[in-house]
Every structure is written in structure tokens, then in C-alpha cells.
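Batch manifest, entry 17 of 40.
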Amino acid sequence: MLVADERAKAEAMLKKIQSGEKLESKEEITNEYREHLLTLMIAQADSELAGAYGYIPWIEGAPTVAEKLAMANIVKDECRHAKAMYDLLERLDIDTDKLIYEDKMKHRMKVFYEPIKTWPDLVMFNFLMDRAAGHQLRDAAECSWGPWSRTMVQIEKEEWMHVKHGETWVRKLSQESGEKPAVQKALDFWFPKVNKVFGKSGTDTNKVYQKFKLKQRDNHDVRLAWYNEMKPLLESYGLTVPGIDVVE
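Output type: C-alpha cells
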């Protein structure tokens, strides 16, 4: 493609984005847009899959039969979400088998390598991480890439069901005097790790994401929305919430 044609394509794409229209075909997007879109979509696809892996041991480890079924359903949901994301990537000519089996180390967030040792650990991870994911998915549901946006609308609804599961159990265990110290310990362990999943704030890359409406907000704004939502909940359970600037 000639430089003039590339410039015209980029201008037409940006005009459509700025007007609030969705982009629907790979032919109408630039290489730069595609590169940034893939970065975000691949990260989400891998996170959905890694999330499922983390819950699998807790089908056996859950304390009741009802919770074993709940864990199995969450695993099923996360695998279905991953499949939906990999289907979208295949439409952009990505070899998804290679992503799953060869390239996962390039994309997986560190939080997914942390061991989940106890039931309080599990439900606190559920509470914090799924709530963080919900805020990130909210941006994706409003993004300029139509196929991703529509897929996110359904995934976001199901993720908030997972959030409610974590919320119910963190509240329940916090009200049991024998379990509350373990819940606080789990919060202290997981909070700084989940706090990092939002990424750095004010980067040039974030500005490009916002220009292309692949993200609606800077990472700091998403992190702050998450913090302001979960902090009063946890404090209402009698837990002490670290400051948002806590680092490991």
C-alpha cells in the first residue's frame, strides 16, 4: 500500500472512531491499531484461561458440595470466556494454539503464578481479582473494535456474578471470629498483587489506547474506581484495607 493510501486509511479510521462508530473489519484498521488491539486481547484471553486454572484445584478443595459446583461453574465460565477471546483472535489471523502452548510466558500476569493455599485465600483472590477484571472489562465493552465490544458485554455480566461469589464469602468469613485473622492475612497478601494488574499510569501506550478508544480511561483511573468500590465494602466487614499506593 502506498504511503498516501495508508495515510488516508488511518484518517478514515480515526474519523470513524471519533464519531463513536465501531470498527468491524480487519481491512479498515491500520497496523498500529491492530498491534495495540492484539496486545490487549491476547492479555485478556490468557487471563481468562489462567483464571480457570487457578480455580480448578478448588473444585476438590471447596468446603461444601454447593461450593464444589460453584467452583466448577466458575471454571466453565472462564474457559468459555477464553474460548470467545481466542475465537476473536483467530478472526485477526492469530495462531491461537501457539499462544496457548508456546507464548503464555510473554502474556501472563504475575498474579496468576501466586499459590492459592487456603479457602480464605481463594475467596479473597476471587473478591479482589474478579472485581478488578470487571472494571477493566467495562472499558473493553465500550471499545472501538465492534467484535470485542459485543463479546465483552456478555462476559462482563458473568464476571460480576463471580464478584458476588467472592463478596458473599469474604463477608461470611469476616463475621466468623475464628476466620477473620485468616481473611485479613489473605487481604494483606493479595491486595498489592492485584493492585499491580492495572499497569502503569500515564504511559505513552495508554495514550494511544485512549486515542483509538481501545481503553476509555488511564490505568490510574481504573485502579481508583476499583479501590473506591471495594474499600468501603471490606471496611464494613471490619477489615483493614491497605492504601492504594502499597507496593510489594
